[in-house]
């Protein structure tokens, strides 16, 4: 039944602009709520198609996450993606998958918000804790949770298509929750139409996707899970390619060059063939890993997706049954306080102490407050982070020249605080040849 409220026509409590564009079965079981029912506290994530806010429910005081999705009624594809994400989330019900708590709409701006429990941390933050490395029992616990969540998705015909550390939320109890189903889609053994290969963040993208496959299955999520398993052991991404071509070569250096049978079996649209023969590099990369983990890693990171098995078969791996066993949730690292305010107080205290130390150092000696980067390897490690989007450099002019110039001077200039400050304020997207020459020319000559 339709009715008018404050000049806006509603249908069963939903704005008409939403009901006219989203199938009613997608909204079934959800309670209409206004975006005005929430106070936005902070923006915590910005994506291509969405923004995530930390917010407080005015009625209950509960802290929630509001995911504002792009909803343009003039773009049918955009509307379809939103409807698909909501429908997929409603199909899933598992402890290791984020739960859709509701939908909220803004009548003024025709905005749609997905409401979730607010979770402060994620697996990337856990892995990159300064000076700390996850233990084998902790890695097993996180990996079991990830595979359990994936098993639930795959058994219901859902591919996530963007498994990475920042999309695996960790709540205050250590429970891992697969989140961000914006790229997720349904799949079947005999698909009616091709799927896009332009999915999954580059460092976690399976080789068949890089080669343009449009007929794929659970193997793409399992490849990403394998990348994360190795990442938990070494503390950084293992395949940090800058371009799709470089990413593919990194994969071949790890897995080796495939046989001709592989190319025939895959029926790929790409005519790519590696220009050189690679021997498998598993031993070099995984040499220091526990023996029981190597079998699971080589299975999940197999070039042929049919060899990767399923999430259910991965959970039966020797890795999980051998000693030491996975720890309980209580044995996982605590990286924030249970209550929000103590966490803020703790962080503020640290910042104040740091400011005090910097002030003292500055008074005694300006140069002594600058800590030079001694090794180029350390710099590369600092830059190896999945917080940078793989397409971040696509709009930079003269990128090749800029990279060469930067590499030439980077180890001579970074101990100069004035130079570091000037470079940090540059907009690299607009650098032309004259600016590059002025910026880097003197350094190259006078080093």
Automatic annotation (TrEMBL):
Pfam families on file: Pkinase
BP GO terms, sorted: positive regulation of transcription elongation by RNA polymerase II
Renumbered residue ranges of the record's region Disordered: 340-372
GO MF terms, alphabetically ordered: ATP binding; RNA polymerase II CTD heptapeptide repeat kinase activity
Biased composition (Basic and acidic residues): 349-358
Alphabetized Gene3D superfamilies for the sequence: Phosphorylase Kinase, domain 1, Transferase(Phosphotransferase) domain 1
InterPro entries linked: CDK (IPR050108), Kinase-like_dom_sf (IPR011009), Prot_kinase_dom (IPR000719), Ser/Thr_kinase_AS (IPR008271)
Compositional bias segments (type: Low complexity): 359-369
SMART domains: S_TKc
Record domain Protein kinase: where: 38-320
GO cellular component entries: cyclin-dependent protein kinase holoenzyme complex; nucleus
Alphabetized CDD domains for the sequence: STKc_CDK9_like
Keywords: ATP-binding, Kinase, Nucleotide-binding, Transferase
Family indicated by similarity: Belongs to the protein kinase superfamily. CMGC Ser/Thr protein kinase family. CDC2/CDKX subfamily.
Record-given protein name: Probable serine/threonine-protein kinase At1g54610
């Amino acid at each position: 039944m339709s009715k008018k409220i404050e000049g806006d026509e509603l249908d069963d409590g939903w704005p008409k602009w939403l009901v006219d564009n989203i199938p009613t079965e997608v909204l079934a079981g959800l309670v209409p709520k206004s975006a005005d029912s929430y106070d936005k506290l902070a923006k915590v994530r910005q994506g291509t198609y969405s923004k995530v806010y930390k917010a407080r429910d005015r009625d209950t005081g509960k802290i929630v996450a509001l995911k504002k999705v792009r909803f343009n009624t003039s773009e049918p594809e955009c509307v379809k993606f939103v409807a698909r994400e909501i429908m997929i989330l409603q199909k899933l019900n598992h402890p290791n998958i984020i739960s859709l708590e509701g939908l909220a709409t803004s009548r003024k701006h025709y905005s749609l918000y997905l409401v979730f429990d607010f979770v402060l941390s994620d697996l990337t933050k856990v892995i990159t804790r300064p000076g700390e490395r996850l233990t084998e029992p902790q890695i097993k616990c996180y990996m079991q949770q990830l595979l359990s969540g994936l098993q639930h998705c795959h058994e219901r015909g859902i591919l996530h298509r963007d498994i990475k550390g920042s999309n695996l939320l960790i709540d205050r109890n250590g429970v891992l929750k697969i989140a961000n189903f914006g790229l997720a889609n349904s799949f079947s053994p005999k698909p009616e139409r091709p799927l896009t290969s332009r999915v999954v963040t580059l460092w976690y993208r399976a080789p068949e996707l890089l080669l343009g496959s449009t007929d794929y299955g659970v193997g793409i999520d399992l490849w990403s899970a394998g990348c994360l398993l190795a990442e938990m052991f070494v503390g950084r991404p293992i395949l940090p390619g800058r371009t799709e071509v470089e990413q593919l070569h990194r994969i071949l250096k790890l897995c080796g060059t495939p046989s001709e049978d592989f190319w025939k079996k895959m029926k790929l649209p790409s005519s790519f063939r590696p220009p050189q023969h690679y021997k498998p590099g598993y031993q070099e990369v995984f040499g220091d890993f526990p023996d029981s983990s190597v079998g699971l890693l080589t299975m999940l990171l197999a070039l042929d997706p049919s060899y990767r098995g399923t999430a259910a078969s991965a959970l039966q791996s020797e890795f999980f049954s051998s000693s030491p066993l996975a720890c309980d949730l209580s044995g996982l690292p605590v990286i924030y306080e249970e209550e929000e305010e103590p966490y803020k107080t703790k962080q503020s205290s640290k910042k104040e102490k740091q400011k005090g130390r910097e002030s003292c150092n500055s008074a005694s000696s300006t140069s002594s407050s600058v800590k030079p980067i001694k090794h180029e390897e350390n710099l590369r490690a600092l830059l190896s982070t999945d917080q940078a989007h793989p397409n971040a450099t696509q709009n930079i002019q003269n990128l090749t020249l800029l990279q060469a110039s930067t590499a030439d001077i980077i180890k001579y200039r970074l101990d100069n605080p004035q130079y570091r400050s000037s470079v940090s304020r540059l907009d690299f997207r607009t650098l032309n040849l004259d600016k590059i020459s002025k910026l880097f020319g003197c350094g190259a000559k006078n080093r």
